[in-house]
Amino acid sequence: MAKDKDRALNPATAQLKADKARALKKGKAAITAQRTERLAQRNPSRLERQISDLKASGDALAGRDKKQLEELER
């Protein structure tokens, strides 16, 4: 007997799967909104200064500094 086929036809399981997918989508949207709000509250002149300092250091950027520069440029 194909148990997987029986589970696929179960409407309760399908509903739970859909609810879980909806919750994940909602969570991702909330995290994106929080990140956007945090970035909006930052001081733009300070951000520009940090970006220019990192770019001025040139090719000698460490991995952490490269990642920070990418985050600041978003």
* Percent of residues in helices: over 70%
Q: pLDDT under 50 segments (min length 5)?
A: none
User: Helical segment tally?
Assistant: 4
If you compute it from the alpha carbons, what radius of gyration comes out, rounded to the nearest whole angstrom? 22 Å
**C-alpha end-to-end distance:** 53 Å
- Overall form: elongated
**Main beta sheet strand tally, sense and closure:** none
Mean pLDDT: 80
Order of helices and strands: HHHH
Q: How many individual β-strands?
A: 0
% residues in beta strands: under 5%
- Which structural category do the helix and sheet elements fall into? mainly alpha
Describe this structure in words.
This protein has 74 residues and is an all-alpha fold. It is built from 4 helices and no strands. The protein has helices at 3-9, 11-41, 44-56, 63-73. The relative contact order is 0.07.
Indicate the topology:
Blueprint: H1 3-9, H2 11-41, H3 44-56, H4 63-73
Task: Supply database-style keywords.
4 helices; single chain; 74 residues; elongated; mainly alpha
